Amino acid sequence: MALDPKMPVLVVDDSSMMIHIVREFLQQIGFSDIDHALDGGTAREKMRAKRYGLVLSDWNMQPKTGYTLLRRMREDPATKSTPFIMMTTESKGEYLAAANKAGVNDYIVKPFTAQTLRAKIEGIFAAKVAVISS
User: Fold this and answer.
1) Beta carbons within 8 Å of 48's beta carbon, 6+ residues apart
2) How do residues 79-130 score in pLDDT, each as one tens digit?
3) What is the spatial distance between Cα 45 and Cα 61, in angstroms, rounded to a whole number?
4) pLDDT for residue 40 is more than 60
5) Pairing mode, if any, of strands 34-37 and 9-12?
6) What angle do CA 45, 55, 126 make, to 5 degrees?
7) Is residue 97 exposed (0-12), middle (13-18) or buried (19+ Cβ within 10 Å)?
8) Contact (CB, 8 A) for 13 and 36
9) pLDDT for position 133
10) Which CATH superfamily is domain 9-133 in?
11) By the 8 A CB rule, do 80 and 47 touch?
């Protein structure tokens, strides 16, 4: 799957300010089909109704965390291979290890820039193309 700025993107964060910032960054990168959810449960409902090409989710949310959302996505055949970037203020090794074990594609520590986000997204899609090509 190549990086396609027309693909739908879902931003999941309990902070409306963070959703606004990430939406702005995604628009700067060239994305226009951007939805959001304020928690993991709402995100799952949206994913049942629409197929997303990329999910960016905060780790710390209530009642369903980004980590729980990631685990549920990886258990579901419909969303198992959807690229997922975990956004968090936590940079501890145990968080990174848990996210990796759950199947995260990449991890980005807040605060971050549009350039950092672009590099993470491009890296995920470059890796997917390399896997498909081999």
Assistant:
1) none
2) 999 999 999 887 778 888 888 999 999 999 999 999 999 999 999 988 765 5
3) 16
4) yes
5) parallel
6) 150
7) exposed
8) yes
9) 45
10) Response regulator (3.40.50.2300)
11) no
Burial track 101-127 (b if 16+ CB lie within 10 A, e otherwise): ebebbbbbebeeeeeebbebbeebbee
> Is the distance from CB of 107 to CB of 88 less than 8 angstroms?
yes
Q: Where are the domains of the chain?
A: 9-133
- Token output for 62: 């209530």
At residue 93, the pLDDT reads 80
Rg (CA), the chain: 14
Q: Which two tokens stand for residue 80?
A: 């198992």
Residues 46-73 have a mean pLDDT of: 93
